[in-house]
Amino acid sequence: MKLTILGGGGFRVPLVYRALLGDRAEGRVTRVTLHDVDAERLAAIGGVLAEQARDVSDAPAVTATTDLDEALRGADFVFSAIRVGGLAGRAADERVALAEGVLGQETVGAGGIAYGLRTVPVALDVARRVARIAPDAWVINFTNPAGLVTEAMSRVLGDRVIGICDSPVGLGRRVARLLGADPDEAWFDYAGLNHLGWLRGVRVAGRDELPRLLADTEALGSFEEGKLFGADWLRSLGAIPNEYLHYYYFNREAVRAYREAARTRGAYLREQQAAFYGSPSLDSWHATLAEREATYMAANREAAGAGARAEEDLEPGGYERVALALMRAIARDERTTLILNVRNRATLPVLDADAVVEVPCFVDANGAHPVSVAPLPLHAAGLVTAVKAAEREVLAAAESGSRETAVKAFALHPLVDSVSVARRLLAAYAREHPELGHLA
C-alpha cells in the first residue's frame, strides 16, 4: 500500500513514519512518497527517516519528489500537511493581527482566516489533482485550518477526504487518565468544529464518569484544560472545552500575553526549525521536538497562571496514531471509532449537511460515518455557527476572488471586533502575502 505525504519536508513527518514502522500487520503501508515544494527540506526529512529505519527490517520504502502529479500517482492514501507561506507566513499572520489588538493564532481568529485565504486555493488544486490522478485514494487532511480546509476539499472529493486533529485525542487521553479509565475503552461525547469543540461526557461501561471529574476541584486543577480554564468555569459549562477555546473565553488575557511575549509562536518555531534544518539528524529532531512540545501554548498557560506542562502531557499529540488507525480501518475494514472532521449530514442540527464538523465517527472500509450526538447548548451553538459563517466567507472569497467577501470573513468572526479592523487586516495581509494576489 502506498502513502503519499504532502508537505513531506515538514517537521512532524517523522512522527508519521515512526507510527508506520510500528505497524507490522498484513496490508500495511510499504511505500511512502514525500512531496514538498522545498527540495532541501525534503532531503533533510528524508535523512531523518533513513535513520529511523536503519535497524528496522522491511521498513516502508521512502522516495521524495517535488512533482505533485508524480507523488499522487498510484497512491492509496494521501496525507496532506502543507503550510502555504511557511513559518514566515505564520509569523506574519500573528504580527499583523496583534498590531490591531486581535488574535493572530494560526487557526483561530484573524490569523486563521488569513491562513485559510491563502491555503484554500492550494488545497482545492490538490483535491482536483487527486480526483484526476488518484481517484480511488483517500485523503487524510491535517493542513490547518483543518476543518475549513477539509470542507474546501470535500467540495471536490466528497467523503473521500477526512480531517484529523490531535487536540481531541489529547483531551480524551488526559480526562480518561484522571478517571482511571482506558481511553481505548471509553466513549467520548465530543462535538463542535475543529479547535472549537467540547467534551460533554465520558462513558465507561455505559456510565458517564465526567460529572465525577467536574465535582473534584483537586482533580480539575491537575491537568492541562483545568489549569487553563479553572475549575469553576468548567463546572459552569458542565463540559471540558478544547484547549483552543481559551482564545475565546479568555481572549483579552490571551491577546495581552501574546503581545507581551518576546516573540510570537510562529517566530519562535521559525527560528527553532531553521536550526534543525540547518543541521538535520534524528538526535536533533528529537531534541527539537521535545522543546517544541514543552513550549506549546506557553502564552496561554502564562495568561492563566497554569505553569509548565505536566510531564505526561509532553508526549507528541497523537495525530499520527489517528492517521494510522484511520488508514487501518479503511484499508482492512478494522472497524473503530475516532473523533474526526467530516461532513455533518444531520449530526449537528444547527449546521447544514455539507458543513464539516468534528465529532465521533464509526470508521470502516466505506469511510467515516458521523455518530448522532446531543444538540449543542445555546452558547456553544452560537460560537459554532458564527465561526462557520466566517469559514464559509473564506470559501466564497477563494472561489470568487472578492476582496469584499474576504473582508466579510474577517468581520464576521467573533474575535474580530470591527469592520474597520477587518478592512485594515486584509490590506496588511495582502501586503505580506503574495498568495493573496488573487483577491481583487
UniProtKB/TrEMBL annotation:
<protein>
    <submittedName>
        <fullName>6-phospho-beta-glucosidase</fullName>
    </submittedName>
</protein>
<dbReference type="GO" id="GO:0046872">
    <property type="term" value="F:metal ion binding"/>
</dbReference>
<dbReference type="GO" id="GO:0004553">
    <property type="term" value="F:hydrolase activity, hydrolyzing O-glycosyl compounds"/>
</dbReference>
<keyword id="KW-0408">Iron</keyword>
<keyword id="KW-0464">Manganese</keyword>
<dbReference type="InterPro" id="IPR022616">
    <property type="entry name" value="Glyco_hydro_4_C"/>
</dbReference>
<feature type="active site" description="Proton acceptor">
    <location>
        <position position="244"/>
    </location>
</feature>
<feature type="domain" description="Glycosyl hydrolase family 4 C-terminal">
    <location>
        <begin position="190"/>
        <end position="416"/>
    </location>
</feature>
<keyword id="KW-0378">Hydrolase</keyword>
<comment type="similarity">
    <text>Belongs to the glycosyl hydrolase 4 family.</text>
</comment>
<keyword id="KW-0326">Glycosidase</keyword>
<feature type="site" description="Increases basicity of active site Tyr">
    <location>
        <position position="106"/>
    </location>
</feature>
<dbReference type="Pfam" id="PF02056">
    <property type="entry name" value="Glyco_hydro_4"/>
</dbReference>
<feature type="binding site">
    <location>
        <position position="90"/>
    </location>
    <ligand>
        <name>substrate</name>
    </ligand>
</feature>
<dbReference type="InterPro" id="IPR036291">
    <property type="entry name" value="NAD(P)-bd_dom_sf"/>
</dbReference>
<dbReference type="GO" id="GO:0005975">
    <property type="term" value="P:carbohydrate metabolic process"/>
</dbReference>
<dbReference type="InterPro" id="IPR019802">
    <property type="entry name" value="GlycHydrolase_4_CS"/>
</dbReference>
<feature type="active site" description="Proton donor">
    <location>
        <position position="166"/>
    </location>
</feature>
<feature type="binding site">
    <location>
        <position position="165"/>
    </location>
    <ligand>
        <name>Mn(2+)</name>
    </ligand>
</feature>
<keyword id="KW-0479">Metal-binding</keyword>
<dbReference type="GO" id="GO:0016616">
    <property type="term" value="F:oxidoreductase activity, acting on the CH-OH group of donors, NAD or NADP as acceptor"/>
</dbReference>
<keyword id="KW-0520">NAD</keyword>
<keyword id="KW-0170">Cobalt</keyword>
<dbReference type="Pfam" id="PF11975">
    <property type="entry name" value="Glyco_hydro_4C"/>
</dbReference>
<feature type="binding site">
    <location>
        <position position="144"/>
    </location>
    <ligand>
        <name>substrate</name>
    </ligand>
</feature>
<keyword id="KW-0533">Nickel</keyword>
<feature type="binding site">
    <location>
        <position position="195"/>
    </location>
    <ligand>
        <name>Mn(2+)</name>
    </ligand>
</feature>
<dbReference type="InterPro" id="IPR015955">
    <property type="entry name" value="Lactate_DH/Glyco_Ohase_4_C"/>
</dbReference>
<dbReference type="InterPro" id="IPR001088">
    <property type="entry name" value="Glyco_hydro_4"/>
</dbReference>
